[in-house]
Design brief:
NAD(P)-bd_dom_sf, about 280 residues, SDR_fam, seven-stranded parallel sheet, about 40% helix, alpha/beta
């Protein structure tokens, strides 16, 4: 059975109940002089991270697929924090785009210090038999290949003290019946974090991950029917979905010197759900 893929990753500008992305605290210069590239930086967790990084002194490159209005809104929010920003449109599943995007970032800012590999898509299916080859390939190309490609493109420009942070998911640890292929990609990303952290440690480049639980982003209404959206996140111990600005501080911690003795690790902003590594 072939099922049409949803419009992914969704448009924040079209959401009635907007996610919360505003940083909660004044900045303290923890990323002063740094340049950060954020794939999927136009909305949701990516937007909150871009705004928080800007408040902490970083210049920001926002990679996005199709959501131009969201990307421009994020750029304006970054600039309101006193930082510079550029937006770059394309598909991270395309290696050539990733190489070109990184080149443009370095051309604009003269350096690259932090890579946030965050872009992702997911498509809910009731039965594994309904996961068509097109969906399987597309989900892996965006979620796994996209992280590989952007990291590969960035590595020649990263120096000791740089940080790579990959977005995985709670689904990598406990699965998700409706998101089997997505969960598989997120498990691959956990392994990528661990392997790459070991490989790059001698160069002084740290690699870590963030595994969000149910976070209210455009991806949710773009994935699930209204009844599941209505109950989204209520199963967590905290009894609600998280907001993007509750996740962004994990990326900040892993990007700055506060986490200088951490590599190969994954943080779990998931509403209190215990997970095993």
């Amino acid at each position: 059975m072939t099922t049409a893929l949803q419009d992914q990753p969704g448009h924040e500008a079209r959401m009635k109940d907007k996610p919360e992305h505003e940083p909660r605290y004044p900045g303290s210069g923890r990323l002063a002089g740094r340049v950060a590239l954020i794939s999927g930086g136009d909305s949701g967790i990516g937007r909150a991270t871009a705004q928080l990084f800007a408040r902490e002194g970083a210049q920001i490159a926002i990679l996005y697929k199709e959501e131009q209005e969201d990307a421009e809104n994020t750029r304006r929010l970054v600039e309101q924090e006193g930082a510079q920003a550029i937006t770059l449109q394309g598909d991270v599943g395309d290696c050539a785009f990733c190489v070109n995007a990184v080149d443009k970032v370095v051309e604009r800012f003269g350096r690259l210090d932090v890579v946030i590999a965050n872009a992702a898509e997911q498509h809910a299916r009731e039965d594994i038999a309904d996961i068509a080859e097109q969906q399987l390939r597309q989900t892996f190309e965006t979620n796994v290949f996209g992280q590989f490609f952007i990291i590969q493109a960035a590595l020649p420009h990263l120096a000791a003290g740089s940080a790579i942070i990959c977005t995985t998911s709670v689904t990598a640890y406990r699965g998700q019946d409706l998101l089997i292929d997505y969960s598989a990609t997120k498990g691959a990303i956990v392994a990528l974090v661990r392997a790459l952290a070991h490989k790059l440690a001698p160069q002084g480049i740290r690699v870590n991950g963030v595994a969000p639980g149910p976070i209210w982003t455009p991806l949710i209404p773009a994935t699930f029917p209204p009844d599941k959206v209505e109950s989204f996140g209520r199963h967590t111990p905290l009894g609600r979905p998280g907001q993007p600005n509750e996740v962004a501080p994990c990326y900040l911690f892993l990007a700055c010197e506060d986490s200088s003795y951490m590599s190969g690790q994954v943080l779990h902003p998931n509403g209190g759900e215990p997970v095993s590594s």
